[in-house]
């Protein structure tokens, strides 16, 4: 068995939305280090350019706003001008909103549900021809949705639309996987736990305190996220379809509940 190529992405083309910072940047950096040519996209062109400059010549800025269906189609068209096929799509762009139940606003619901659920579907739809051009049964193209452990378990914060959106995206991952595998495209998801980012300010600003409730005893590092994404994107993940992998130091599957005895 030749395992040298199982976790390499040499010659592969990837697009990472929300790729200029946080978890998206972690994944983009890992893909570049594994030999891929990576397009990073976000609304802020300057942030994309900065990330591309930092990650080297195999990282290319492709700014775009995927918060609308039109924006998804525009981004897909821009990529199609540069590439004839797309091997890996990472749907990472997302938003969160926290507010007490009594005041939780419609705009906080719609913004989060649109970006976290609607956009991954319609961007994948818009990029379907490029993904299909790459994929085959022998070497499938990959769509990796970035969900969250908050779609699997409750967190203590009043982030109603965020938790609903991530649960929905986990289920949507399965449904898209059932359809797209016919076109040689595998759809999976990664559910991150505590990783320091602008969205997860608790892990970013209070990492030691957060780590105390994580079975592994620490928050996630860039290598943890990159390794999982590389596995799913590469040959090593070719037989993984519709699955959601929690990368969380054991919060979902290895945390002991409190005892009710006594």
CATH superfamily: NAD(P)-binding Rossmann-like Domain
The shape is globular
Structural class: alpha/beta
The tally of domains stands at 1
Order of helices and strands: EHEHEHEHHEHEHHHE
Spatial strand order of the main sheet: 3-2-1-4-5-6-7
**Strand percent estimate:** 5-15%
State Rg. Answer: 18 Å
Uncertain regions: pLDDT < 50 for 5+ in a row?
none
CATH topology: Rossmann fold
Task: Note the main attributes of this structure.
single chain; 262 residues; alpha/beta; Rossmann fold; 7-stranded parallel sheet; 7 strands
Summarize the structure in words.
With 262 residues, the chain is of the alpha/beta class. The chain has a single domain, classed as 3-Layer(aba) Sandwich (Rossmann fold), CATH 3.40.50.720. 40% of the residues lie in helices and 13% in strands. The protein has nine helices and seven strands. The protein has helices spanning 22-33, 45-55, 69-80, 106-126, 128-134, 160-180, 201-205, 207-211, 222-233; strands at residues 13-17, 37-41, 59-61, 88-91, 141-146, 185-192, 244-247. The protein has a seven-stranded parallel β-sheet with strand order 3-2-1-4-5-6-7, with helices on both faces. Helix 2 (45-55) links the parallel strand 2 (37-41) and strand 3 (59-61). Helix 1 packs across helix 9, helix 3 (69-80) runs parallel beside helix 4 (106-126) and helix 4 packs parallel to helix 6 (160-180). The protein is globular. It starts with 12 loop residues before the first strand and ends in a 15-residue tail after the last strand. The mean pLDDT is 93.
């Amino acid at each position: 068995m030749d395992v040298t190529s199982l976790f390499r992405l040499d010659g592969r083309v990837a697009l990472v939305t929300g790729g200029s910072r946080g978890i998206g940047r972690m994944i983009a950096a890992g893909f570049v280090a594994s030999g891929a040519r990576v397009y990073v996209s976000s609304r802020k062109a300057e942030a994309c350019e900065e990330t591309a400059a930092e990650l080297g010549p195999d990282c290319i800025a492709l700014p775009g706003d995927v918060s609308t269906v039109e924006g998804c189609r525009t981004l897909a068209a821009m990529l199609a001008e540069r590439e004839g096929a797309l091997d890996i799509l990472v749907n990472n762009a997302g938003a969160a909103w926290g507010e007490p139940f009594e005041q939780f606003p419609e705009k906080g619901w719609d913004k989060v549900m649109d970006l976290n659920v609607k956009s991954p579907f319609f961007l994948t739809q818009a990029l379907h021809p490029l993904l299909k051009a790459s994929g085959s049964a022998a070497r499938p193209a990959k769509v990796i949705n970035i969900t969250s452990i908050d779609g699997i378990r409750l967190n203590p914060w009043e982030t109603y639309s965020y938790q609903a959106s991530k649960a929905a995206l986990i289920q949507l991952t399965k449904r898209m996987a059932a359809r797209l595998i016919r076109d040689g495209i595998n759809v999976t998801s990664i559910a991150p736990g505590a990783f320091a980012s602008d969205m997860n300010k608790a892990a970013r600003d209070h990492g030691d305190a957060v780590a105390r409730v994580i079975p592994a005893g620490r928050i996630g590092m860039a290598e943890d996220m990159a390794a999982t994404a590389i596995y799913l994107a590469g040959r090593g993940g070719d037989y993984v379809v519709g699955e959601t992998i929690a990368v969380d130091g054991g919060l979902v599957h290895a945390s002991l509940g409190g005892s009710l005895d006594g």
